[in-house]
Structures are given as C-alpha cells and as structure tokens.
C-alpha cells in the first residue's frame, strides 16, 4: 500500500475507533457519504449522481427512506444494505459491499475483531447521516 494511502487508512481507522462527540460523528458520516455514496446517489441523496446513468439498476432516492416506511427511518435495513455482507442485497449487484471493503481496509492495520468494529462504526456514521437527510 502506498505511504499516502496507508496514512489515510490509519487516520480513518483511528478516527473510527475513538469515541467521538456526536457533531464529529455527523461530520464523519457526511464525509463518508460524499466519498462513498454521492457518485451514484448524488450529493443530496436524490439518486442523481454522475455515475447513476451508468448502472443497470435505478439508483435509490435516499431522502425518502423514512417517508416510504410510514415515517420511520429504517436504520437496521439501511445498516444491512450498507454492510452488504448478508444474503439480502438491497440494490441488486450494483450496490458495493461496503462492510467487506471497510473490514479489508482496516485488517491491514489491526486485528479482525478491531476491523469489524471499525466497519460497524463507519457504517453507523454513514447511516446516521442518511437519516439526517430525510425529507
């Protein structure tokens, strides 16, 4: 792994493993969204990202998840979709399996158990941000 990429991975891992105040967690979730999701789902979560037209499935509008679930944000489902390692695949084969990517990234630096914790925190920060952008 190149030094710059390794430094970035270590910094992200440290930030994800240290308990942080909620305002910092919100910032981490927003940054994760912009880095990992906005390409397909768009900067505002409407499903209109620059890569959306290249996919074989329609990209979800993430701002209406609560509205489409009787006004309740489906946190568990969103976490499962982000993780992607369960047998339930939210968006067909085009949705990346972020949970495995997060674990693989962290496993180069820490134990498997710590990598799993890192993946959970990273997914939770992202899901919390998605909850914040609900209409």
Q: Strand portion, in percent?
A: under 5%
Q: What is the CATH topology descriptor?
A: Cytochrome Bc1 Complex, Chain D, domain 2
Radius of gyration: 15 Å
Amount of helix? 40-55%
CATH arch. level architecture: Orthogonal Bundle
Order of helices and strands: HHHHHH
The poorly predicted ranges are: 1-8
Number of separate strands = 0
Main sheet attributes: strand count, strand direction, barrel closure: none
Termini separation comes to 40 Å
Number of helices: 6
Task: Give the overall average pLDDT.
Answer: 83
CATH class: Mainly Alpha
Give a short overview.
With 135 residues, the chain is an all-alpha fold. It is 55% helix and 0% strand.
What does this structure look like?
- With 135 residues, the protein is mostly helical.
- The chain has one domain (23-132): Cytochrome Bc1 Complex, Chain D, domain 2.
- It has six helices and no strands.
- The relative contact order is 0.18.
Helix and strand layout, with pairings?
Elements (H helix, E strand, L loop, with lengths): L2 H15 L4 H15 L1 H4 L33 H9 L14 H10 L4 H21 L3
Helix pairs in contact: 2-6, 4-6, 5-6
List keywords for this structure.
Cytochrome Bc1 Complex, Chain D, domain 2; 6 helices; 0% strand; globular; disordered N terminus
